[in-house]
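Team,

Forwarding the record for the chain on the shared tracking sheet. I've put the sequence and predicted structure together so nobody has to dig through attachments.
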Amino acid sequence: MTRSQTDIEVAIDWLVLLQGDSVTEDDWRAFDAWLTASSAHAVAYDQAQAFDQRLDLDARRVDRAPAVAPVAATVSTNLVALRPTRRVWLWSAGSAIAAALVAGLVLLPGSGLLGGRETRYVAGVGERRTIVLEDGTRIELNAASRLTVRFERNARHVRMDDAQAFFDVAKDARRPFLIEAGDTQVRVVGTRFDVRHRDGQVAVAVQRGLVEVRPASAAPIRLRAGQGLSHVEGQDDARVAVVPVDEVTGWRQGRLIYRDRPLSEIVGDLNRLFPRPVKLADARAADMRLSGVLIVDEQDAMVGRLSHLLPVRTTTTNDAIVIRAR
């Protein structure tokens, strides 16, 4: 048996295990370690996924497909006969599939769009939305956020524009969940985490499971529960740290929690919550840093609290609230 055939057999074993009901967190960690140990493993797993998807196609279409070689013809016949016992068949027929895939004898499906559609979701200023995707994934969108979702046969794609969202991703070992946020890609299979893409900065915080983050010009970084990554677009500065995830996701409960953050960032958050703009009158005010909690309620009350927490004063007009250093 060749090395490629062995890799595909192992990939099939992983595919069966991860689709089972008894998969554990340790299984996911072990799979992550195997998948990233070699680029050949990723290729083998993609091939196994693609072949597995043939079992979900209409049996009549499989039956009509021409046999391109004896091995492929045998596999196609078995697909029709054993379709109801898909997982058992995958496990027991691993060697035959591996040989067929390595020889290039089995026709694999393309990666065209399922349904050929892209869906855009928007949460307006002061609005939070919860979205349930067709695979069961839940996305909570923070105020003033925009993202696009596209499902393909081999992957689930999300592109985040200016946005913050909390993801509870449904497990699907055959279709990883890929998020593009600026120059950064986040890759998961099933987990819970927060992604913030604002003002040219990306931050990821993991509540449960494993997340692979790949900033541009940096090697992939794997984050576990309780870890976070921050990154400025265009820079080689990805930083990993232990993070209090409940604080990062406090916006879901109407709390903005800051640890040594500039007032310019806090004002940006306020402007996503209310239509009347808050403006900074001078650079000294913009650079002031805050550690504290702001309860999300009325705009005037929130801005008023800032004047108690920082040496600033506010002026309110019909069109805006202006903050300046005292």
